[in-house]
Structure formats: structure tokens, C-alpha cells
Design brief:
Elements: E1 15-17, E2 20-22, E3 26-28, H1 44-52, E4 58-65, H2 82-97, E5 102-107, E6 125-126, E7 135-138, E8 141-144, E9 149-150, H3 156-172, E10 177-181, H4 187-192, H5 207-210, H6 212-225, E11 230-234, H7 248-259, E12 266-270, H8 286-292, E13 296-300, H9 305-313, E14 319-322, H10 324-328, H11 332-337
Parallel strand pairs: 3-4, 3-14, 4-5, 5-10, 6-9, 10-11, 11-12, 12-13, 13-14
Antiparallel strand pairs: 1-2, 7-8
Helix pairs in contact: 1-2, 3-6
This protein binds P-hydroxybenzoic acid.
Amino acid sequence: MKNNPTTETTLFSPIALGPYTLPNRIVMAPMTRNRAGAGNVPQPVNAEYYAQRASAGLIITEATQVSPQGVGYPATPGMHSAEQVAGWRLVTEAVHERGGRIFAQLWHVGRISHPSLQPDGALPVAPSAIRPDGEAITYEGPQPFVTPRALQTDEIPGIIAQYRTAAQNAMDAGFDGVEIHAANGYLLDQFLRDGSNRRTDGYGGPVENRARLLLEATEAVTAVWGGDRVGIRLSPINSFNSMSDSQPQATFGYVTRQLNRFGLTYLHVMEGTIGEAAQPAQQVDMRKLREAFKGTYIANGGYDRSRAMAALRAGDADLIAFGVLFLANPDLPQRLTVDAPLNAPDAATFYGGDTKGYTDYPALEAEARPA
Ligand code: PHB
């Protein structure tokens, strides 16, 4: 146990997060839903979806592109045009009207894209010209990944500028903060882990170099927001998107310690893997990362009510992020409070489509709520 609380910490204990007081420890995890409109612009239906879930202690949006080059999937929202900022404003206003708090997740997919999704049909960019296994999801259906173009060293400031601009746009859109997406095999993670980074410049080789882009992007984002309204997401053992690292405990331990210099409000760790791991999952002691980080720790990865309660009780996490459970249960905090049955998620409507499987999951009947 990290400290010795006199009152037991539960999912329903309030907690301070930066300047905010969260009424509970239940976070809506970022989830790609592919329901943005033309121009990657958030729509009123997206505002309704997030507003339905405003009873979360904190909402983290679906991954949101920092630039046209950062796009990797159809109908995912962006944070780089005036229309997108106006679309996000609908979302933040709707969530705030319902009393919620919402951070925007800032994303550049790097090599997990396809020329058909890139400006001028360009090759996706990456730390190194290493093609991931599998297929990109495009507007024309799945297509094999291409070998990306390795970024030139002199292009790196432009990548950092994309994060800075998107961070400012998120502020203009009325968000309460931002989460830097450095997980799940996207650009910042591609630089960090040595399976995807074979560079020989100052951004490749030893971990001090591989972590440089992530830390410089963090510096740019915190210059806009201050550290206390910025979180970061890591996924130390997730092999999704052909990711691997030869020394994950050392790599992620280093990054976590370095991040302390920015005074970030939280570290959000995707503790598991997405889909079937290609190789046996690598081992990383997440508790060591939690101990190393001087801020709030959000745990994510297949938690249910009882595992979440146990993790909080043991002091292994401060907050728990729920993905699929929140997707299927707009009133998840209420349901967890009374330990009510949960709606079953419909995987066929996770990605793309209309309101079906998006804004039509029912809340508990009013009469089932405690008086
Ligand atoms: C996905 O669209 O499959 C996706 C997006 C962002 C993630 C993970 C998965 O972090």
C-alpha cells in the first residue's frame, strides 16, 4: 500500500487532478469510433455521445490527429483546422453543460497510415523505413501497410510544432486539458521502442535519444497548457501495430522518470495488449512505473468493477480508465455505484456507422436508481 488512508479509497472517492476535483475515479478511456464528419470534423452526434458519458470523473477523447499527416483511419477527428475546433467546441460545451470534464487526446499515427489517407498521396512518416505487418484501414477498405518514409532530422521541429499547434487548438476548443498519445504503436511510441526505431541521429539509438521526440513534444504541449492540465499515455507491453522493445522495463522506466520534469498531472498506462499478442507478452512491472512517476496514475486494460476496486484499495492506481464498458454504458459510474448489470457491447458497431451502437445504449431505468 502506497500510503495508509484512513478511509478506504473506492471508485467513488473524489480526487484532485491538476486544478480539477473529480467526483469519482472512473475515467472514460480514449476510443476510436470513426464517426467524425467530412474534413475530420466532430459533429453534433459526437457531442451527444460524449455528453451522455459526462458523469465520468474524466473523459479522454478518442485519438485526435495533430495534423493532416497524422491521420491513419477514416472518419477520425482532427485538431488542426478551424472547422475541427468549432466541431470540438460543440463537444466540450455539451460535456460541461452536464458537469463533466474532458481532455483531448493528441495523436500522430506515424507509419500506421496509408498514402490514400495522406496529403498528396504521400508516404506515411516514421522514425525508420520499417513496414508494420498487416493492413491499413482506408476509405477503400483494408490495404497492406506500405513501407513508411523515415523522417529527416530537420523535419523533427515541424512534428513538434504540430503538437504545439494542436495543443493550442484544443485550448481554443474549450477542453479542460490534453493527453499526449505516446502509446499503441503510433508515432511517439514508434520513436520510443527500439523495434521500430533504427535511427542513427540524436533521435535513435540509446533510450535517451529514442525518448527525445516524446519529451520535446511534451515540452511543447506543456508550454501551452502547463503541466497540471497535461497527461500522457504509454503502453509498455502492447505489441499492437508490430511494436516491440528489447528492454521495456528500462525504456519505460527512463521515460517515466524524465517525464517528472514537466509536472504532468497524470500518467495513463495501457497495461495490456490490444488483440492477440504476436509473441508472448513482454514483462513490465507497472507498479515500478507508478512508483517512479510523481503524479496521478491511471490504470487501463480490461478492468472490471472488482479488479478496479482491488487496484485502488491496494494503492496500485489512483484512477481506472474503462473503455468498452463505458462505450456500452453511458451511465457507467451510476451502474458501478449500485453494481447494476451492464449493457453488452456490440463489436459490430465499434468503428464507424451511425447512432446505432453509439448514442443508443440505454441508461438504467430511472426507477432502478436509488432514491
Ligand atoms: C484503432 O483505431 O484501432 C486505435 C486507435 C488508437 C489507439 C489504439 C487503437 O490508441
